[in-house]
Amino acid sequence: MSGFTLDDLRTVMRECVGVDESVDLAGDIGDVAFAELGYDSLAVLELASQVQRTWGVPLTDTPALEARTPGAFVAYVNDNLTEAGR
Predict the structure, then answer these.
(1) Which residues belong to any copy of the Carrier domain (predicted)?
(2) What confidence score (pLDDT) does residue 84 get?
């Protein structure tokens, strides 16, 4: 695995948490707040949990919740991948 991408996050968002039909995840969502995409804190925790299971990267709840946008979440995951030596 070379890193966690916004496309990887989109996949998790679609498959595990779901997407409001009014939200277009195909667009440039990197800097759009999760709240604007219809994802509350519980949904972000579910994203983190699924990424942790699928990618085998340790993520903690508080920093995951502090990632207010998909782009920030991807950066957080990649920081943890690097720390985990992946």
Answers:
(1) 3-81
(2) 61
